[in-house]
Amino acid sequence: MNNIEYLTHFIHAAHRGYEDAISDLTPAQFAHRPSDTTNHIAFTAWHWVRTEDNIVQFVLQRQSTVWIDEGLDTAWNLPRVAQGTGMAPIEAYNMPIPTTSAFLEYAHKVWAKTDDFLSRVTQDELDRVTKVMPFGEIPVFQVLGQTLIAHGNQHLGEIWLTRELQGLKGIGF
């Protein structure tokens, strides 16, 4: 397995994981916060998909994001540029929540753009060094591995746990 196949495999696995963890949620389950100091699934999923959109579209390709192209900041009354990193907890806890189906429609568009990028990316592009905050100057391969795979799976674990705390099916093994 080469680097491109590796990234594609694990990014697709993350996408399937998010789909499985979110697609059956009711609006109340999507918005449930297990405690006064935890995020709801909607925020966590939005944060990660927005991050993927920003990284793949804007940071790596200097293209407009799906978020901006679709006008979702206005439609959902959410930040135009931010994706939740550094957001004040109270703001995250109280953010407006789209429906699960509307969110997944956005996610599918982002994932399709990521698939397109992965189908065209070269090893030279993966070796290119670019600046990504807060990590600094790192290779594109690391950007994708760190922000989409590692970071994405950390948040996916949060989502599965939040499901379980609501008495819903967890990740299972």
Question: Which terms would index this structure?
Answer:
mainly alpha, 173 residues, two-stranded antiparallel ribbon, single chain, Four Helix Bundle (Hemerythrin (Met), subunit A), 2 strands, 9 helices
Helicity range of the residues? 55-70%
* Overall pLDDT metric: 93
The fourth-level CATH homologous superfamily is dinb family like domain
Q: Rg, please?
A: 16 Å
Major β-sheet strand ordering = 1-2
Order of helices and strands: HHHHHHHHEEH
List how many beta strands DSSP finds: 2
Number of domains: 1
At CATH level 3, the topology is Four Helix Bundle (Hemerythrin (Met), subunit A)
User: Helical segment tally?
Assistant: 9
What is the CATH architecture term?
A: Up-down Bundle
Structural class: mainly alpha
| Bulk shape | globular
Beta-strand residue percentage: under 5%
**End-to-end Cα distance:** 25 Å
Uncertain residue segments: none
Largest pleated sheet: 2 strands, antiparallel
- In CATH's first tier, which class applies? Mainly Alpha
Topology of helices and strands:
Blueprint: H1 3-22, H2 27-31, H3 41-59, H4 66-69, H5 72-76, H6 89-93, H7 100-120, H8 123-127, E1 129-132, E2 136-139, H9 140-165
Antiparallel strand pairs: 1-2
Task: Produce a short descriptive summary.
By secondary structure, this protein is mostly helical. The protein has nine helices and two strands, in the order ααααααααββα. It has helices at 3-22, 27-31, 41-59, 66-69, 72-76, 89-93, 100-120, 123-127, 140-165, and strands at residues 129-132, 136-139.
